[in-house]
Design goal:
Layout (H helix, E strand, L loop, with lengths): L1 H6 L6 H30 L1 H22 L18 H12 L2 H32 L4 H25 L6 H12 L1 H5 L6 H18 L3 H8 L4 H4 L1 H63 L4
Helix pairs in contact: 2-3, 2-6, 5-6, 5-7, 5-9, 5-12, 6-9, 7-9, 7-12
């Protein structure tokens, strides 16, 4: 779906459309979780699964009828070309040879998804349960993350209107998102997890939607050859793979370090990677500014 948004957005409105897209996805996640929980308590799990399946089919039929194949002038140059294993391999080499993209992927995109998968969905609920929190209390703490994204996402599009801001703000947002995990990891309280989730939600609300435009900006030279959709596909595939590996690593660290230690280590790794990205981005930014003067 993100590829469809990209293909049907002008350069002027691309950032706003992508940020709005992420905000809508997060809104659906929060509302679907809440409504599903209410219906499960009222009708039972089997009925909720059946209703969900019917809604998915209904949404698919609507999408098939409403989404158009018409593309504007900003469509990928490679859309009409027939892809082959050789062309896909060349596209992979072209994209992954961009050092800035690989740095962005390893230091920002993957850590962002690791925080959601390993911390928000895994470590935080388990640690809250270990602290004696009830199921409803755990749900309320986790839902704060999505609520903040829903509320603050509209403001994010205004922040990223000006060019040149994305790199700095995304890097600082990644650094800020894991700050609570370091500051409060040794505080054995439900409030510690609550505050860290609030910081995570604030940071991701303002920066997560800007990661897609930043990736396209970094790969500006490769896009005329491989297309925007190819860049986005690599980004999604590799960040999902990194999320899975980060989740497995977090699960392995619980036994030797416990929940507190694992949370602190995860936060430190994300903050460290964010600092590396900010330093490298500063170097590239200075080089791009001074280059025309030579």
């Amino acid at each position: 779906m993100a590829g469809y948004v990209i293909s049907n957005s002008t350069t002027t409105h691309l950032n706003k459309n992508l940020i709005a897209f992420v905000g809508i996805i997060m809104s659906a996640t929060m509302c679907g979780t809440a409504i599903g929980g209410i219906l499960a308590d009222w009708m039972g799990y089997h009925a909720v699964f059946s209703i969900s399946a019917l809604l998915v089919v209904f949404a698919g039929v609507l999408a098939a009828g409403m989404l158009t194949d018409d593309r504007n002038s900003f469509t990928d140059a490679t859309t009409s070309r027939k892809t082959t294993p050789t062309s896909r391999l060349r596209s992979a080499v072209s994209v992954l040879s961009n050092f800035r993209f690989v740095l962005f992927l390893l230091c920002v995109a993957v850590p962002t998804n690791v925080l959601v998968a390993a911390y928000l969905w895994y470590l935080a609920p388990l640690y809250l349960s270990d602290l004696g929190a009830s199921a409803s209390e755990i749900a309320r703490v986790i839902m704060i993350y999505y609520l903040l994204i829903v509320i603050l996402s509209p403001f994010a599009s205004k922040i990223f209107d000006r060019p040149g801001r994305s790199g700095w703000l995304v890097g600082l947002g990644s650094l800020f998102s894991a700050g609570g995990m370091i500051l409060f990891y040794d505080w054995q309280s439900i409030w510690a997890i609550f505050l860290s989730v609030v910081l995570l939600g604030l940071a991701h609300a303002l920066t997560r939607g800007a990661q897609l435009p930043l990736a396209l900006e970094i790969c500006a030279r490769e896009i005329p050859v491989v297309g925007r959709t190819t860049v986005l596909s690599f980004l999604r595939f590799l960040e999902r793979t990194g999320s899975m590996l980060g989740l497995l690593l977090a699960a392995m660290l619980i036994e030797p370090f416990g929940y507190q230690g694992t949370i602190g280590i995860t936060g430190a790794l994300v903050c460290g990677s964010a600092l590396i990205f900010l330093i490298a981005h500063s170097v590239f930014y200075k080089a791009s500014v001074t280059l025309p003067l030579k």
